[in-house]
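Our collaborator T.R. sent over the components below with a one-line note: 'Predict the complex.' Nothing else. No constraints on interfaces, no templates requested, no preferences about which chain binds where. So this is a plain run: every listed entity goes in together, and whatever single assembly comes back becomes the starting point for the next discussion.
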Amino acid sequence: MNQQKYNFRAVKPAEIEALSMAMIEKELPHPIDETLAPIIKRVIHTTADFDYADNLVFSENVVEHALKTLRGGCHIVTDTNMAKAGINKTTLLKYGGQVSCFMAEEDVAAEAKARGVTRASVSMEKAAKIREPLIFAIGNAPTALIRLYELIQEQQIQPKLIIGVPVGFVNVVEAKELIMTAGVPFIVARGRKGGSNVAAAIVNALLYYPGD
Amino acid sequence: MNQQKYNFRAVKPAEIEALSMAMIEKELPHPIDETLAPIIKRVIHTTADFDYADNLVFSENVVEHALKTLRGGCHIVTDTNMAKAGINKTTLLKYGGQVSCFMAEEDVAAEAKARGVTRASVSMEKAAKIREPLIFAIGNAPTALIRLYELIQEQQIQPKLIIGVPVGFVNVVEAKELIMTAGVPFIVARGRKGGSNVAAAIVNALLYYPGD
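Returned assembly:
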């Protein structure tokens, strides 16, 4: 049988992740900070891309801030329904948290069209009205980060954490550099790479962080 | 203002994608097949990873087969809710299609646990009972591809297309090689890379394919 030819590893479903993480650990291009390791390794687990051992940038003590916010119950806002779908809602709910994405809402689309801005930009304004501790998980739209930066400057919003990992070619690199200057705790994938999957992986890495 | 410093391109929301695609076209490491280009470029657009110019493998005439199936109305099955969330349902519905993911269903989890197999494996068995033209978009679980291979060998299922792009470290490379021998049209990301985002991007590239 063909299956034999490929030498599948006999591994129980529950063991796959631990084995993957051990392989990632072994193949890391260089040692990584112990506090940041669970996040970096989960992003590599999600992408099989070791570039993330180098391009993730963390503000000072960001993990400590993030865990405090997440474990105290918070509202996570994403810029794609994919990122929302990828976040572990069971664990988030356990901490009293919730996750929203406003991108597909009709009023957001209508307003964006009328004003000639992106839906992501309008979504951020909508999120700014939420009166709970806020975490942003941005995996797609650089305009979300640009609008967040402006809202922070205008003191309309004070996010507890911005996960800034949009992917792409137009204004993405620049928007990520900008958000790192906003004075808010951040985790950013510097450069073009990122994505909704990366945004969700970072949230999940924080949700699964050891030492609860 | 800081924003000035970063030289954002003045580009309208509707133009971002076309500009991104033009940049990708220009940076491709080598010329790519014209028929496959819309798929390869959309995956690079989704990941900012030019490795996909080389690691995507296509069975013969797969685009032609896939378009015929998609445009005739079909049932797409994914192995994550993220991939399901990322597929353009409006366009899919226009063609009379639908998309399902069985991973989070309680009976699937219970049966997987009882049998000591993955939920992905049980999900594929559930999908095999669907009596409509089937496309699989697998971005996460190598066991989904292994089970699909077995179900095809047992003549329990005859998918019209398998998008086999799970990401990861354990049995992923091998499962992708296996599915390419199943005798079913495929699009596979050879190697470790892939993901739910890549699976959704490939479906969307086919949904948006020119010449409808």
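Summary for T.R.: Strands of chain A lie at 56-58, 75-78, 98-101, 134-138, 161-164, 186-189.
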